[in-house]
Amino acid sequence: MTEPNTEQPAVRGPVALLTGVEKTYTMDSVSVPVIKGVDILVRPACFTVLLGPSGSGKTTLLNMFGCIDKPDKGEVIVADCKVAALSDDELSDFRAKNIGFIFQNFNLLPVLSAYENVEYPLLLAGKSAKARGERVPRLLEAVGLADLAKNLPGQLSGGQRQRVAIARALARKPKLVIADEPTANLDSVTGASILALMRHMVNRFEISFIFSSHDREVIKAADDTIFLKDGLVQNIKRKPLRSTP
Protein backbone atom coordinates (compact mmCIF):
# COMPACT_ATOMS: atom_id res chain seq x y z
CA MET A 1 0.00 0.00 0.00
CA THR A 2 1.53 3.32 -1.08
CA GLU A 3 1.22 6.25 1.26
CA PRO A 4 -1.11 8.93 -0.13
CA ASN A 5 0.42 11.92 -1.88
CA THR A 6 -1.85 14.25 0.05
CA GLU A 7 0.14 13.69 3.25
CA GLN A 8 1.93 16.79 4.53
CA PRO A 9 5.63 16.40 3.67
CA ALA A 10 8.20 16.22 6.44
CA VAL A 11 10.36 19.28 7.01
CA ARG A 12 13.43 17.12 6.41
CA GLY A 13 13.87 13.99 4.34
CA PRO A 14 13.02 10.60 5.84
CA VAL A 15 15.50 8.87 8.12
CA ALA A 16 14.55 5.55 6.55
CA LEU A 17 12.43 4.48 3.61
CA LEU A 18 11.13 1.19 2.26
CA THR A 19 9.71 1.22 -1.27
CA GLY A 20 8.00 -1.70 -2.98
CA VAL A 21 9.49 -4.14 -0.48
CA GLU A 22 8.65 -7.85 -0.79
CA LYS A 23 10.00 -10.78 1.21
CA THR A 24 9.32 -14.53 0.98
CA TYR A 25 10.73 -17.23 3.24
CA THR A 26 11.00 -20.89 2.26
CA MET A 27 10.30 -23.50 4.94
CA ASP A 28 10.30 -27.22 4.17
CA SER A 29 10.19 -26.43 0.43
CA VAL A 30 7.11 -24.26 0.95
CA SER A 31 7.36 -20.57 0.02
CA VAL A 32 5.64 -18.24 2.48
CA PRO A 33 5.26 -14.58 1.43
CA VAL A 34 5.75 -12.43 4.55
CA ILE A 35 5.93 -8.91 3.07
CA LYS A 36 3.89 -8.29 -0.06
CA GLY A 37 4.84 -4.89 -1.45
CA VAL A 38 5.22 -2.30 1.29
CA ASP A 39 6.09 1.41 1.24
CA ILE A 40 6.99 2.97 4.62
CA LEU A 41 8.90 6.08 5.55
CA VAL A 42 10.28 6.97 8.98
CA ARG A 43 10.33 10.69 9.68
CA PRO A 44 13.20 12.46 11.47
CA ALA A 45 12.92 12.85 15.26
CA CYS A 46 9.85 10.66 15.17
CA PHE A 47 8.40 7.91 17.38
CA THR A 48 7.01 5.24 15.02
CA VAL A 49 5.13 2.09 16.08
CA LEU A 50 4.35 -0.97 13.94
CA LEU A 51 1.11 -2.72 14.90
CA GLY A 52 -0.43 -5.94 13.72
CA PRO A 53 -1.26 -9.52 14.66
CA SER A 54 1.39 -12.23 14.93
CA GLY A 55 2.67 -13.08 11.46
CA SER A 56 1.79 -9.70 9.96
CA GLY A 57 5.45 -8.95 9.13
CA LYS A 58 6.45 -6.53 11.92
CA THR A 59 9.73 -8.22 12.87
CA THR A 60 10.71 -8.75 9.23
CA LEU A 61 10.21 -5.04 8.54
CA LEU A 62 12.25 -4.10 11.61
CA ASN A 63 15.03 -6.38 10.36
CA MET A 64 14.97 -4.57 7.01
CA PHE A 65 15.09 -1.15 8.63
CA GLY A 66 17.95 -2.49 10.75
CA CYS A 67 19.82 -3.72 7.64
CA ILE A 68 19.81 -7.24 9.10
CA ASP A 69 17.59 -8.71 6.38
CA LYS A 70 17.32 -7.83 2.68
CA PRO A 71 14.13 -7.73 0.60
CA ASP A 72 13.61 -9.99 -2.40
CA LYS A 73 12.23 -6.96 -4.24
CA GLY A 74 12.12 -3.24 -3.55
CA GLU A 75 14.54 -0.81 -2.00
CA VAL A 76 15.72 0.03 1.52
CA ILE A 77 17.20 3.47 2.17
CA VAL A 78 18.54 4.40 5.61
CA ALA A 79 20.27 7.73 6.38
CA ASP A 80 20.26 8.57 2.64
CA CYS A 81 22.11 5.35 1.81
CA LYS A 82 20.79 2.71 -0.60
CA VAL A 83 21.52 -0.36 1.49
CA ALA A 84 21.61 -2.82 -1.42
CA ALA A 85 24.68 -1.07 -2.83
CA LEU A 86 26.81 -1.97 0.22
CA SER A 87 29.05 -5.02 0.53
CA ASP A 88 28.68 -7.19 3.63
CA ASP A 89 31.62 -5.45 5.33
CA GLU A 90 30.34 -2.00 4.39
CA LEU A 91 26.87 -2.94 5.60
CA SER A 92 28.19 -4.08 8.98
CA ASP A 93 30.09 -0.81 9.41
CA PHE A 94 27.13 1.27 8.23
CA ARG A 95 24.77 -0.50 10.64
CA ALA A 96 27.11 0.06 13.60
CA LYS A 97 27.40 3.79 12.83
CA ASN A 98 23.80 4.61 11.96
CA ILE A 99 21.46 2.18 13.74
CA GLY A 100 20.95 1.39 17.42
CA PHE A 101 19.11 -1.68 18.73
CA ILE A 102 17.11 -2.25 21.93
CA PHE A 103 16.17 -5.84 22.76
CA GLN A 104 13.36 -7.35 24.85
CA ASN A 105 15.83 -9.27 26.97
CA PHE A 106 18.19 -6.24 27.20
CA ASN A 107 21.10 -8.27 25.72
CA LEU A 108 23.65 -6.74 28.09
CA LEU A 109 27.01 -8.40 28.69
CA PRO A 110 26.67 -9.80 32.23
CA VAL A 111 30.36 -9.49 33.14
CA LEU A 112 30.50 -5.79 32.24
CA SER A 113 29.26 -2.92 34.40
CA ALA A 114 26.58 -0.51 33.22
CA TYR A 115 29.34 1.90 32.22
CA GLU A 116 31.27 -0.77 30.34
CA ASN A 117 28.16 -2.00 28.49
CA VAL A 118 27.50 1.52 27.20
CA GLU A 119 31.19 2.01 26.43
CA TYR A 120 31.51 -1.26 24.50
CA PRO A 121 30.23 -0.01 21.09
CA LEU A 122 32.64 2.91 21.34
CA LEU A 123 35.54 0.55 22.04
CA LEU A 124 34.60 -1.50 18.96
CA ALA A 125 34.54 1.73 16.96
CA GLY A 126 38.07 2.58 18.10
CA LYS A 127 37.06 5.74 19.96
CA SER A 128 39.71 7.27 22.19
CA ALA A 129 39.62 7.02 25.99
CA LYS A 130 38.93 10.76 26.08
CA ALA A 131 35.95 10.48 23.71
CA ARG A 132 34.58 7.50 25.65
CA GLY A 133 35.07 9.29 28.95
CA GLU A 134 33.02 12.21 27.70
CA ARG A 135 30.24 10.26 25.98
CA VAL A 136 29.45 7.43 28.41
CA PRO A 137 28.84 9.49 31.60
CA ARG A 138 26.65 11.87 29.59
CA LEU A 139 24.49 8.99 28.36
CA LEU A 140 24.23 7.37 31.79
CA GLU A 141 23.18 10.72 33.23
CA ALA A 142 20.60 11.12 30.45
CA VAL A 143 18.97 7.78 31.35
CA GLY A 144 19.14 8.45 35.10
CA LEU A 145 21.83 5.90 35.99
CA ALA A 146 24.88 8.03 36.73
CA ASP A 147 25.03 6.69 40.30
CA LEU A 148 24.83 3.03 39.15
CA ALA A 149 27.59 3.13 36.54
CA LYS A 150 29.68 0.47 38.33
CA ASN A 151 26.82 -1.99 38.82
CA LEU A 152 26.70 -5.24 36.87
CA PRO A 153 23.45 -6.08 35.01
CA GLY A 154 22.62 -8.69 37.67
CA GLN A 155 22.61 -5.92 40.27
CA LEU A 156 20.07 -3.84 38.33
CA SER A 157 16.29 -4.08 38.04
CA GLY A 158 14.64 -4.83 34.69
CA GLY A 159 13.86 -1.17 34.13
CA GLN A 160 17.41 -0.14 34.98
CA ARG A 161 18.82 -2.74 32.58
CA GLN A 162 16.56 -1.42 29.82
CA ARG A 163 17.86 2.10 30.55
CA VAL A 164 21.41 0.81 30.12
CA ALA A 165 20.33 -0.79 26.82
CA ILE A 166 18.88 2.54 25.65
CA ALA A 167 22.08 4.38 26.56
CA ARG A 168 24.13 1.74 24.71
CA ALA A 169 21.88 2.04 21.63
CA LEU A 170 22.61 5.79 21.56
CA ALA A 171 26.37 5.47 22.12
CA ARG A 172 27.41 6.06 18.51
CA LYS A 173 24.83 8.77 17.83
CA PRO A 174 22.69 6.71 15.43
CA LYS A 175 20.11 8.16 13.07
CA LEU A 176 17.64 5.38 13.88
CA VAL A 177 16.94 3.18 16.92
CA ILE A 178 15.01 -0.07 16.48
CA ALA A 179 13.19 -1.96 19.22
CA ASP A 180 11.04 -5.11 19.12
CA GLU A 181 8.47 -4.95 21.97
CA PRO A 182 10.76 -2.91 24.26
CA THR A 183 8.32 -2.85 27.21
CA ALA A 184 7.06 -6.45 26.90
CA ASN A 185 9.11 -7.86 29.80
CA LEU A 186 8.47 -4.93 32.16
CA ASP A 187 5.65 -4.25 34.60
CA SER A 188 3.27 -1.41 33.68
CA VAL A 189 4.88 1.22 35.92
CA THR A 190 8.41 0.42 34.75
CA GLY A 191 7.23 0.19 31.16
CA ALA A 192 5.66 3.65 31.42
CA SER A 193 8.91 5.12 32.76
CA ILE A 194 10.91 3.51 29.93
CA LEU A 195 8.41 4.85 27.41
CA ALA A 196 8.74 8.35 28.85
CA LEU A 197 12.52 8.03 28.68
CA MET A 198 12.48 6.99 25.02
CA ARG A 199 10.16 9.88 24.17
CA HIS A 200 12.62 12.18 25.94
CA MET A 201 15.48 10.71 23.90
CA VAL A 202 13.59 11.46 20.68
CA ASN A 203 13.20 15.09 21.71
CA ARG A 204 16.66 15.54 23.25
CA PHE A 205 18.79 13.84 20.61
CA GLU A 206 16.46 14.14 17.57
CA ILE A 207 16.77 10.42 16.90
CA SER A 208 13.99 8.43 15.25
CA PHE A 209 12.72 5.35 17.08
CA ILE A 210 10.76 2.56 15.38
CA PHE A 211 9.13 -0.22 17.42
CA SER A 212 6.81 -3.12 17.18
CA SER A 213 4.46 -3.16 20.15
CA HIS A 214 1.03 -4.15 21.44
CA ASP A 215 1.34 -1.90 24.49
CA ARG A 216 -1.50 0.64 24.45
CA GLU A 217 0.64 3.24 26.20
CA VAL A 218 3.34 2.91 23.53
CA ILE A 219 0.69 3.26 20.83
CA LYS A 220 -0.76 6.40 22.46
CA ALA A 221 2.69 7.97 22.66
CA ALA A 222 3.52 7.32 19.00
CA ASP A 223 3.85 10.09 16.43
CA ASP A 224 3.29 7.64 13.59
CA THR A 225 1.30 4.42 13.83
CA ILE A 226 1.54 1.87 11.01
CA PHE A 227 -1.01 -0.96 10.95
CA LEU A 228 0.03 -4.22 9.26
CA LYS A 229 -1.93 -7.32 8.31
CA ASP A 230 -0.86 -10.30 6.21
CA GLY A 231 2.31 -8.56 5.06
CA LEU A 232 0.56 -5.41 3.87
CA VAL A 233 0.20 -1.89 5.27
CA GLN A 234 -3.48 -1.42 6.08
CA ASN A 235 -3.39 2.09 7.49
CA ILE A 236 -0.99 4.83 8.57
CA LYS A 237 -1.77 7.53 11.12
CA ARG A 238 0.61 10.45 11.53
CA LYS A 239 0.59 13.29 14.03
CA PRO A 240 2.15 16.67 13.21
CA LEU A 241 5.73 16.81 14.47
CA ARG A 242 6.95 19.75 16.47
CA SER A 243 9.39 21.88 14.50
CA THR A 244 12.96 21.87 15.72
CA PRO A 245 14.56 25.29 16.23
TrEMBL record:
GO terms for biological process: response to antibiotic. Residues 16-245 form the ABC transporter domain. GO terms for cellular component: membrane protein complex; plasma membrane. SUPFAM superfamilies: P-loop containing nucleoside triphosphate hydrolases. Keywords: Antibiotic resistance, ATP-binding, Cell membrane, Membrane, Nucleotide-binding, Transmembrane, Transmembrane helix, Transport. One of its GO terms (molecular function) is ATP hydrolysis activity. SMART domains: AAA (SM00382). It comes from the Bacteria. The keyword Transmembrane applies. InterPro entries: AAA+_ATPase (IPR003593), ABC_transporter-like_ATP-bd (IPR003439), ABC_transporter-like_CS (IPR017871), ABC_transpr_LolD-like (IPR015854), MacB-like_ATP-bd (IPR017911), P-loop_NTPase (IPR027417). PANTHER family: ABC TRANSPORTER ABCH.1, IMPORT ATP-BINDING PROTEIN. Belongs to the ABC transporter superfamily. Macrolide exporter (TC 3.A.1.122) family. This is ABC transporter family protein. It comes from Rhodoferax antarcticus ANT.BR. The lineage of its organism: Bacteria, Pseudomonadati, Pseudomonadota, Betaproteobacteria, Burkholderiales.
